[in-house]
Amino acid sequence: MEYKNLDKAEAYSALLKDEKKDIKTLLTAERVKKSEVKLGGGLKYNWAAMPVDGKIIKDYQKLADEMELVEKYKAILSGEVMNTGEKRLVLHHLTRGNVLGKEVWADGEEKGAFYKEQDEKIKAFSASVRNGSIKGSTGKKFQTVCQIGIGGSDLGPRALYLALKGWAKGANVKTLNAEFISNVDPDDASDVISRLNLETTLFILVSKSGTTQETLTNRDLVLDVLKKAPIPGFDASKHMVAVTSKTSPLAKDSSMLASFFIDDYIGGRYSSTSAVGGVVLSLAFGYSTFEKLLKGAHEEDVKALNPSVKKNGALMDAMNGFYMRNVLGYPSTAILPYSQALSRFPAHLQQLDMESNGKHVNRNGEPIDYVTGPVIFGEPGTNGQHSFYQLLHQGTDIIPLQFIGFKDNQRGMDIETAGSTSQKKLNANLSAQIVAFALGKNDENPNKEFGGNRPSSLIYGDKLTPQALGALLAHFENKVMFQGFLWNINSFDQEGVQLGKVLAKKVLNGCEGDEVLKAFADLLI
Amino acid sequence: MEYKNLDKAEAYSALLKDEKKDIKTLLTAERVKKSEVKLGGGLKYNWAAMPVDGKIIKDYQKLADEMELVEKYKAILSGEVMNTGEKRLVLHHLTRGNVLGKEVWADGEEKGAFYKEQDEKIKAFSASVRNGSIKGSTGKKFQTVCQIGIGGSDLGPRALYLALKGWAKGANVKTLNAEFISNVDPDDASDVISRLNLETTLFILVSKSGTTQETLTNRDLVLDVLKKAPIPGFDASKHMVAVTSKTSPLAKDSSMLASFFIDDYIGGRYSSTSAVGGVVLSLAFGYSTFEKLLKGAHEEDVKALNPSVKKNGALMDAMNGFYMRNVLGYPSTAILPYSQALSRFPAHLQQLDMESNGKHVNRNGEPIDYVTGPVIFGEPGTNGQHSFYQLLHQGTDIIPLQFIGFKDNQRGMDIETAGSTSQKKLNANLSAQIVAFALGKNDENPNKEFGGNRPSSLIYGDKLTPQALGALLAHFENKVMFQGFLWNINSFDQEGVQLGKVLAKKVLNGCEGDEVLKAFADLLI
Questions:
Q1: Catalytic residue of the set A386, A424, A448, A505
Q2: Cβ distance B324 to B455 under 8 Å?
């Protein structure tokens, strides 16, 4: 297998030379029906409103083949050291099933079995908490779980919890309330703690390394509150579990009610389907719900093996995103879910994409001459329509859009008013927006003129279920992975976060003679 | 006064020719101390880590003078028709005090008195609700207020409520819980309603026009729930107030407990200091808290009159932002508050900035040849550090950053661990990040190399109080206003949101023969 930079690929030169297409001339009802591919979990990816024709898609295929994108995905699945910066395997796919059916060994153990073992522990533990056989220290059933973690230990699990809360309500799945503490700002922990009944709360401490400054600080803050709680018989050690790696200092902490393990082969932003997401989601909704999410993700992982761009949604999405970025030169992408349940999903994708692909050197650490990951932002529709869509429609820059929508709502509460349900109004808005962005509108008054030709894609399905959510999550993970291969970068390390950590320690040590640093610290401390 | 396009300004040509400066060579401890200006509310704006020197700032001043930025602000304050697209006055400054001391008349009334009258009504009504002399229909005191509104009726008020909750806790200010329903997705209303005790909840229906599809739909959904509530003696009309314009259909709705008025001269995204924000904030925290917020905003509005760029924080911030966008060519800006209380403030600024300045024609509706408003996104620090900062530090694009920080936390709960408090760790991180972005770090391993020269500014103060928050809000409003003047656009209309509304109606009418629209609608409905 060859690893070469994007600008060394022949098919990339071809794509740069391909005639630029106008969405307005391409878009027909027929094209809408034809331009889509099935994802896992009952979802579909539709690219009808992207400015790409058959010739461009043929060149996508050539580029995907030339850059051996699917082969590189198989290398990940086979347990090759694809995180070149940290010299690690990349095994998040394995947490939801073995895609290639090939055993992956590391550190003297078969990793599929290791993840399975953790899931079995999660299954048994969450069942005991949910059925009340494991209780709080004062004999009360746990009603709330509170995850303490930051970054990948927060954004993904939180987004997924919020995405499933309404589904659980609609499906009558018993739910434990989940809360999240992440920021080192003490106002974050203080706010969350003020909402908690300590006797019925189980804390989940999540840090792979066991050394994350924010997470350990918040643990200490929580433990301080727990230990001072004026509740007779209260015992803090019956109210906290850990999710960490076996080699971390936390793994040896005997004051935990239970511990669940991850390893160095699961990056934080890819950890939602490991114990990092599994513990909190299984406690909140039951293990069987988490299992369905894994199933949806696995389905999508299998589909991502298809070498044909037109039959592989993650690959097609990756190529479209790359085309927007490197050929058309658009620097950002908006994620627009028409589903309030996905309110924090864009924040998760922001980490997933920008931390994975915001890189300036290739996988061998050599400088590259082309742009990599875009800025990712987004809010749910229709809220965004009343906020930043003005710029999306009529601003001077073009922002490619990724819409997400579902035929049905999750909770089953709806009302018909002015001739239609809320759900129908929601989706009428979504379809209207795609067309408005694509086709625009002429007007004598230039202020009311819409240029159109603003590209978008749509992921859609019947309902946001655990399976659909798992597939949606895996879709974006695999999209980001394929783009990382295209750019020949390492999507699995994050050296860019180190310098800030080092300098923050320096500030806490009195700035060690660094005058500029001290001048800024003096403004704030 | 002259209105001309940016590219007709001599000082703009001069700025384009000015030598580009390197932050690394500019930044010294002395510069950090000198490069700042006082804002209202005890805040300061520091631009030490911006790549601008004395020559560039002199040219800022020339451009500000040539484009008559402060004069145009005075024209707004004087009641000129500065919303040229909709032929309206722009009066949000007047909701927090008369900056010029000059009366503004419209529609046969003195507008300052009109806003004051609404505030008096809000003061009396909120006091009665908070002291229990106005009760729910079953005789119980109101404990929760729930705002139904979208866009400017949601994002600003919600961001401000969240920003003050911790302050109120720390200052022992009695607080009514506030909830918000915005999205037409029925899962939004359903989720919020499931958390409410209807007997003790007061709904606030907010729509200036009284015709907003989402808001009316959610009102109907809420009323349906209220009317079906199996509570003896429950009367829905005792549980809802309206905030609307006097001429809207809602103003005539006699089923409301009370009505508070705004007018066409307050744009949605500028309405947080009108009754749109005033009712919910006064109910939640008391009118005197809202009054302090107005005072902070007014202080900042007065400071924004200063014609000297170096003495006018909003003007300096506007010039820096313009320089990043039009001279250095950076297409987006990140808002990074190191304060969990400001968790939704970036979402408010996203609307404020992108809806105001995402325009492609000048104020006369003529096409322009330069870029206007940037993409705005952001999350609180330190959370963002564990998410998208990788791209900010090492991505291939430069993203200018706006940091916000406070010496003290709001709630007063903190702990010293590993030698420092959480608050100190928070601010150590903030100062570290500014320096890391500005100066970077050399390393033999290019993957661990930080190029630096990544521009940032810092707004900081002692504590996020109502006054500081008001000033922060007004600072960004005025910054966006000054930038709109620079670009010679109308920052106060939003024609770009119309087409989507028209097409959504078309979908609800069966697509009226529009085949492409129908093809998309068929995927979702």
A1: A386
A2: yes
